[in-house]
Structure formats: C-alpha cells, structure tokens
Amino acid sequence: MQTIPVSVLMSVYMKEKPEYFTQTMESTLAQSVQPDEILLVEDGPLTEELYEKIQYYRDRLEDRLTVISLKENQGLGTALAIGVKNCRNELIARMDTDDIMADDRLEKQYHAFLENSDLAIIGSNIIEFEGTIDNVLATKKMPLTNEEIRQFSKKRNPFNHMTVMYKKEAVIAVGNYLPLQGFEDYYLWVRLLKAGYEGRNLPEFLVYARAGTEMYNRRGGLNYLMPGLKARKKIYQEGLGSFTDFFSVSVIHVGICLMPTQLRGKFYKRMLRK
User: Fold this and answer.
1) Does the CA dihedral 241-172-4-94 come out positive or negative?
2) Belongs to which family (predicted)?
C-alpha cells in the first residue's frame, strides 16, 4: 500500500459514539493511498469505550497514530489548532470522528496538490446519510472554482469541513483555527480567502456525512441562534462579504433557528441541499 505525506486530523470528545469512531478509522485505513499520520486530539476526558477503541488503533498503527490528550475540554477550535501545530506533514486532511471517507478521497486530493502548487485548500461534495450510508438523506454540492468559492463565502460556508485538505503553512499564517462556536471552520476559510490563498472543490462526493434529526436539532433554538449571529458578524468583519450579505444571511439564520425541527429538516433538504 502506497503511503503519502499527509496527516489526517481529527478531534474526539466524550459524547462521540465508539461505533462511529470505528467506522471513521476503518474508512481511513481503507484509503487507496495511506496517510503516514493520523493525529487524534482527545478534547478532554473520554469514556472507557472510546479509550479502548483508541488503544486498539494505537496498537495496530504504532507510530502512524499520534494522540494528543487535553486534560480539559477546550472546544473544537482550540483542539484543532493544537492538532494543526503538531501535525508532522505540510498537507493536512480534516475528518470528523463520525463520518466516513470514500476510499479514493485522499488520493484524489493529494494529486490535486501535486498538480497545482498554488492550491492552499481543497474540499469536495458530500452525501448526507442517517444510520447507514445506503440511507441517503441529501447531497451537498459546493462551488468548484476559486472565484466561485470566494463569491459563495460571502453568504455561506464554501467548504464541507470534513472534506478539506489544506497546507499547514497557510493555515498557521492566517492565525490557525480560532474559537468561534459552531463556525470555527468557516471562520478559518474566509481568512484564508481574504489573504489571497487559492481554494478549490472537487465535484466528486468524497465523504459520507452523518445528518438527520440530531443535526437538525443542533441547528435550532436559542443555543444556536445567538452564537450563530455573533459568529456571522465576526465572519463578515474578516471575510469578503458586504453588510447586505451579512444582514440577509442573519435574517435567514434567525428564521431557521426558530423553525420547528421537522420543518428545519425539510428546509435543509429542499433549500440548502441538492
């Protein structure tokens, strides 16, 4: 099996389901080309079941698995920032510990970087599923070219975060991940784009992402409404959009958060997905 100089970066916390984590790891180990490092940040104390799963992969992967343990939960932005700094490769592929990679994801993205030395970040489309990957709820297609991505970023996140591969040097140059509840990734992307770095999305569906009722619940209510408005203001201030862009997406954000969960799910599928 060919090994490539790529670090797969993930963060895990105590509420993660061990069976989902296993599926994520196995999809990584089933890649057509293998990353020479998987870096896992333990964001605070975990459950015994998760520790057992991580130990299993430590024994199996030896020095290909790097584990960083944080004594207390720091939140996703801080955990990922620590992970970026400690990855040993210049190319870093992000992954969530409950999603599943298509078996050629890393190969296709790695070759895109070999073909374009100016590229700083690349993502792809996703298939959203619930339960098993055969139970498809929706697909999420993203803008493809750098200019399309820049325009899209003025109102919406231009990358599916669990699909991106990026250059460590570029991410650190714009300040790395920063805490911004629920929007840590979007905040990083707009800073990269504003600084002039080049982005791209591949048209393929390279990650299966978990969705469904749990996700729709998280995207609503006051607990998501207020942090979301604060985050969108911060993204507007540091991104490429106008005040009109900020105002219009804020109005939509309020409406989505106040919808009943069932209606919110329908809105996501019909209006925000393909």
Assistant:
1) negative
2) Belongs to the glycosyltransferase 2 family.
- What CA–CA distance (Å, rounded) separates 200 from 182? 23
Instruction: Note the pLDDT tens digit of each residue in 55-82.
Output: 999 999 999 999 999 999 999 999 999 9
Judged against a pLDDT cut of 60, whether residue 274 lies above it is answered with no
Task: Let me know the angle formed at the C-alpha of 104 by 199 and 111, rounded to the nearest 5 degrees.
Answer: 45
CB atoms within 10 A of CB 166: 27
Amino acid 182: pLDDT: 84
The pLDDT tens digits of the residues spanning 227-243 come to 878 888 888 788 777 88
Largest CA distance in the chain: 53
Tell me the two tokens of residue 216: 């729709």
Region class of 150: left (phi > 0), else alpha (psi between -120 and 50), else beta? alpha
Of 233, 219, 228, 224, the C-alpha closest to 190 is 233
Task: Let me know: does 243 contact 251? Beta carbons within 8 Å.
Answer: no
Count of structural domains within the chain: 1
Answer yes or no: are the C-beta atoms of 25 and 8 closer than 8 Å.
Answer: no
**What residues make up the domain containing 235?**
3-271
User: For the chain, give me the number of helices (H) and strands (E)?
Assistant: 11, 9
CATH number, residue 85: 3.90.550.10
